[in-house]
Amino acid sequence: MSNDIQDDISSLKLLGRWSVFYYGVGHMLNDITASCWFTYLLLFLTEIGLSPRDAAYVMLSGQIADGFATIFTGELIDRFGHFKIWHGAGSVLVAVSFSSVFGGCIPCRILHTYAKSVQTISYSVFAAIFNVGWAATQVSHMSMVNCITRNSTSRVVLASCRNAFTMVANLSLYAVALIVFDVIKGETHADIENQYRWIAYVSISIGCCFVAIFHLGTKEPRLKVGVQGNSHARISWAYWFKKLLYYQVAIVYVLTRLVLNVSQVSTFYFPALWCSLYSFVQVSNVLYKAYLAFYVINDLRMAHSAKALVPAIIYICSFIVSVILQEIAWTGQRLKAYYSAGGILWLFCGAGILLLPTSMSEYMYAISIFIGIANALMTVTAISMQSLLIGEDLNGCAFVCGSLSFLDKISCGLALYVLQLFQSNSTIVQQTNPVYAYTSVTRYGLGLFPAFCSLVGVAVTCTMKLHTPCTKPLMEPLLA
């Protein structure tokens, strides 16, 4: 009993910088592989000969597998705990399957055929396996925040640190990609496969090093500890479905993830409407990542090095802002204000992307700075809203993280699939009529859709009633 009370008291204290650091690096493998996934997968698949439709099938199969895996993983973690075991097992799956996705069509070599149908099925299967492992790692790592500490400010700091190292992971990927694209010339089909194979192998190696640091430095948190150290039963799904804040946070989180990855009627609270709005947010994130490479090369006619330089600028700015955000004493009103600021900033960025002509393509570097700032503001605050939603209800934290991630993945997959279908149809039109090149599907997908998701996210945020946590600011900066 005395140990439970001591654990309860320690969970209210502000975390030290090393505890924050060890947790923050735990998602590096997921982040660096996800960045490669959303930035280069569609590009890779189309460059090796798959049609945009087949490439969309591969992406969608992975997103669906990821979505359902998050639900089951969250339920199992809430039942049995052992966050680090789930995290480690998921990391192993990610490392093995991701190398197979970008390592070439293995079944094609075994069957001695490179038919498009065989390639599509092969990449879809490995994409699904990769996303199952990714989901196990993500849900265990994200839900762990609420059990590591009950201090509201420390929870935001952990989310900020995690986001900062997400930027480090993305920067690492683009540094690797910049070197690989410069050293290995993609003149033949084999050269292109070799380029992406090296990017995948180096990325996995970097991510695995940080996974090891996370497991060595982070203690297994206790799941079933109540407000006063008392154990209590697992919280049912129905408990969350009856809370209006659950749907509001879901909308904001999904819309934010959509902005990041593309650039995530009930009787009481109209959940169908809320969930569809949540999906819009997440999809905009997916679109920005997935179509950024297409936009800078095909629409703006920039040099191929821009495929790495433009995203690198975005992530450098996001990293800086994420580190700064950890120094703030957070309240519910500040979360809403900072999220709204990021969303409004994205509206201007979206307008710039939509209207930027090819002759002024160099201004994309300036727009990238503001995209990076907006992404950090929206991501850190949206994830932190989950912690305010969970509060002291720790025995349902994994379900909350898993269910929101489910909506995120399904929404992103469907959004990318639809846009790829339009992309396939618009390619022929652009070749026959140059006027359409200025208003391509890529330009609308990257500029208009994330901006719309940001606008909806800001509108929903303004309706939230977030309790102001009574906590102190972080006393030890992460990078002091």
TrEMBL record:
<feature type="transmembrane region" description="Helical">
    <location>
        <begin position="164"/>
        <end position="184"/>
    </location>
</feature>
<dbReference type="Pfam" id="PF13347">
    <property type="entry name" value="MFS_2"/>
</dbReference>
<keyword id="KW-0472">Membrane</keyword>
<dbReference type="InterPro" id="IPR039672">
    <property type="entry name" value="MFS_2"/>
</dbReference>
<dbReference type="GO" id="GO:0015293">
    <property type="term" value="F:symporter activity"/>
</dbReference>
<feature type="transmembrane region" description="Helical">
    <location>
        <begin position="444"/>
        <end position="466"/>
    </location>
</feature>
<feature type="transmembrane region" description="Helical">
    <location>
        <begin position="397"/>
        <end position="419"/>
    </location>
</feature>
<protein>
    <submittedName>
        <fullName>MFS_2 domain-containing protein</fullName>
    </submittedName>
</protein>
<feature type="transmembrane region" description="Helical">
    <location>
        <begin position="237"/>
        <end position="256"/>
    </location>
</feature>
<feature type="transmembrane region" description="Helical">
    <location>
        <begin position="85"/>
        <end position="106"/>
    </location>
</feature>
<feature type="transmembrane region" description="Helical">
    <location>
        <begin position="20"/>
        <end position="43"/>
    </location>
</feature>
<feature type="transmembrane region" description="Helical">
    <location>
        <begin position="118"/>
        <end position="136"/>
    </location>
</feature>
<feature type="transmembrane region" description="Helical">
    <location>
        <begin position="363"/>
        <end position="385"/>
    </location>
</feature>
<feature type="transmembrane region" description="Helical">
    <location>
        <begin position="337"/>
        <end position="357"/>
    </location>
</feature>
<feature type="transmembrane region" description="Helical">
    <location>
        <begin position="308"/>
        <end position="325"/>
    </location>
</feature>
<feature type="transmembrane region" description="Helical">
    <location>
        <begin position="268"/>
        <end position="288"/>
    </location>
</feature>
<keyword id="KW-1133">Transmembrane helix</keyword>
<keyword id="KW-0812">Transmembrane</keyword>
<dbReference type="InterPro" id="IPR036259">
    <property type="entry name" value="MFS_trans_sf"/>
</dbReference>
<comment type="similarity">
    <text>Belongs to the major facilitator superfamily.</text>
</comment>
<feature type="transmembrane region" description="Helical">
    <location>
        <begin position="196"/>
        <end position="217"/>
    </location>
</feature>
<dbReference type="GO" id="GO:0005886">
    <property type="term" value="C:plasma membrane"/>
</dbReference>
<dbReference type="GO" id="GO:0008643">
    <property type="term" value="P:carbohydrate transport"/>
</dbReference>
